[in-house]
Amino acid sequence: MFRGKAVFLLVATLGFALTPLFGQRGGGGGSTSSPGNPLAQTGPYLSGHVAFEDGSAPTEKVIIQSNCGGRIREETTADRKGGGFGFTLGRGSGDLMLDATNQANHAGPVATENLRECVVQAVLSGYMSDVIYLANLTSGKPDVGTIILHKAAPGAAGVPSDTAKQASKDARKAFDKGAEAAKNGKWPDAAASFKKATDLFPGYADAWLELGKAQVALKQVEEARKSFEASIKADEKYAAPYILLVPIEFQALNFKAVTDLSGRLLKVTPAIPPQIYFWYAAAHFRLGEFEAAESVSGEGLKADIQHQAPKLHEVMASCMIVRNDSAGAAAQLKQYLEVAPLAPDAANIKTKIAELETQAQAAAPK
Question: Domains in the chain and their CATH numbers?
Answer without folding.
Answer: 43-151 (2.60.40), 162-234 (1.25.40.10)
